[in-house]
Design goal:
The chain has 198 residues and is of the alpha+beta class. The protein contains eleven helices and four strands; from the N terminus they run βααααααβααβαααβ. It has a four-stranded antiparallel β-sheet, sandwiched between helices. InterPro entries: DUF7691. Residues 4-196 form the DUF7691 domain.
């Protein structure tokens, strides 16, 4: 089983953090996310004892654009997640926490049946945080650009109540969650969707 967290945010602003060297942001995150960072360090305590960076050190490396230790790529992926937590508006993930591994493809099929071809939720499981962050299999990362969100939301609005009802309860609920994410993105100024799969 896996789970996802979804955020509506300015993707360009998020990407610009990587390598920015922004010490004010680092200090702010260290205070505002202090509880998150402490929980993360406790969860990964054994790995930190073996040489993995603490979560704050991983966030610092992301903000500085390195240096990175490829052995601990997951810590930088989680650090990027923490930056999303700070910058983004968390979205409802009720239908994606937890989910079985073939669920995303099932939801993609439901989206296609309604004519939504601009986005897929499986994107969130097959991509990775931006370069220069090291490759990691957990967490995985994916995003929907503002243009994709606008196109997909228009496609959603063109679908009918009858088409949506034909999906069945569970699938319809999941597809409607996707539509809520799209609504959140398109209601802001140039927002996109970022999602992490754990």
């Amino acid at each position: 089983m896996a789970m996802m967290e979804i955020y509506a945010l300015d993707l360009d602003e998020l990407t610009a953090v990587v390598g920015s060297g922004d010490r004010t942001l680092l200090r702010t995150i260290s205070v505002e996310l202090e509880g998150h960072l402490a929980v993360a360090d406790e969860e990964f305590g054994d790995r930190i004892a073996e040489g993995a960076p603490t979560r704050l050190d991983a966030i610092r490396a992301v903000i500085d654009g390195g240096p990175f230790d490829d052995r601990y790529g997951y810590q930088y992926g989680y650090a990027y997640h923490n930056l999303c937590v700070y910058h983004g508006l968390r979205q409802n993930n009720l239908n994606f926490a937890p989910f079985r591994h073939d669920w995303l493809e099932t939801v993609d099929e439901g989206l296609r049946r309604l004519g939504l071809t601009a986005v897929t939720v499986s994107t969130f499981r097959h991509n990775r945080p931006p370069s220069p962050l090291p490759y990691t299999t957990e967490p995985t990362y994916g995003e929907w650009s503002p243009a994709q969100c606008r196109e997909a939301f228009d496609q959603w609005r063109a679908s009918t109540i009858e088409q949506r009802a034909a999906l069945g309860y569970d699938l319809r609920e999941a597809v409607e969650s996707c539509a809520e994410w799209l609504r959140a993105a398109t209601s802001g100024n140039g927002l996109g969707i970022a999602a992490f799969s754990f």
